[in-house]
Each structure stands twice: as C-alpha cells, then as structure tokens.
Amino acid sequence: MSADTRPRLIDTLGRTRRSFWDWRGRRPFWGGLLCILAGVPVMYIPYQTVSLGDLQFRMATTAGAGSLIIGVLLIVLGLTMWYQPQSRVFAGVAAILLALVSLVVSNFGAFLVGFLLALIGGGLGVSWAPGEARPEPVVPSPGEPDGRHRAD
User: Fold this and answer.
1) What are φ and ψ of residue 49, in 5° steps?
2) What is the dihedral of CA 58, 71, 68, 59, to 10 degrees?
3) Is pTM beyond 0.70 here?
4) How many CB atoms are located within 10 Å of the residue 87 CB?
5) Can you give the pLDDT at residue 62?
C-alpha cells in the first residue's frame, strides 16, 4: 500500500463536513438545536443553589418536578425536529406552548433564557419547509441545436 492509495485526513474531513451539511439541510436543524438548548436552563436553574459568601439562595420552585419535565420535553422535541422532520409542525407548536408554560412554572422560563430559546426554536420548527431538488442543467450535445438559433 503506497501513500497515494490511503485516504488523506483532509479528504475524510471534507466528506464528513459535506455529509453533515446535507443532513442539516434536510431538517429544521436550528429550530431543534435551539429547543435542545432551551431545555437545559429550564430544567437546571430551578434546582440550582446560588451562594453569595455565607448566604445561600435556593432557586427551587413549588413546581420543581414540572420544570424538570418541561426541560426534558423541550430536549425531546428538539431531537424530534432533527430525526423526524415530518413532525416539525407538531414539535414546534408543542415547544412554543411549553415555552409559555415555563414562564409560570420555571422561574420566568429560567430567567427568560430558556423561554426565548424555546419560542424562537419552536417558531423555526413550524416555519421550516423542505426544499425542492434543483434540476440538473441541460447541456446540449455538440451536434444538437441548443434552441437559441432559429431554423429558417
């Protein structure tokens, strides 16, 4: 085996990046990513304890389990947008509704960070539509007229 026959690392990385771009282009990638990112603060912040010197603040709410459920559901809806793009409208509407519920349940939607991420991610999921394949350009063969000249 010579050095010329082995696949080079740059070729492998280029193919991997192109295949990821193709995968990303066939689904509401950014909407799903924002929903996944929204779930993290919504389920984490209500269980967090903040310390200022000897003073400790507990961010726990009366609906701590509700915050955990909302955060996990937002992550699941983001993954649904990625792996089931046919369900993007349902997942987007559900993410928007969960974002609105998180305002009440989870410390103002985890201090508006999770709320805004879920709201924008759900909107991107609802508004995304699959693109149409581009037609291949027709190249006339050398012996055929290309349609630009009139035959008299």
Assistant:
1) -115, 125
2) 10
3) yes
4) 14
5) 65
State pLDDT tens for residues 4-33.
666 676 777 788 888 888 888 888 999 999
For every residue of 120-150, DSSP letters joined together read HHHHHHHH--PPPPPPPPP---TTS--SSS-
| Per-residue tokens: 118 | 């879920």
> Tokens at residue 145, please?
């007229």
Residue that has been written with the tokens 């349940």 in this structure: 105
Most confident of 3-7, 38-42, 47-51: 38-42
* C-alpha dihedral, 23 to 28 to 33 to 38, nearest 10°: -160
Nearest to 119 by CA among 60, 27, 37: 37
Q: Which residues on neighbouring strands pair with residue 55, listed in sequence order?
A: 52
| 81-107 residue pLDDT tens | 999 989 999 999 999 999 999 888 887
By CB neighbour count within 10 A (0-12 exposed, 13-18 middle, 19+ buried), where does 31 fall? buried
Q: For the chain, where are the alpha helices, taking DSSP H only?
A: 9-25, 29-44, 64-83, 88-105, 107-111, 113-127
131 CB-near residues (< 8 Å, 6+ apart): 25
Burial of 40 (0-12, 13-18, 19+ CB in 10 A): middle
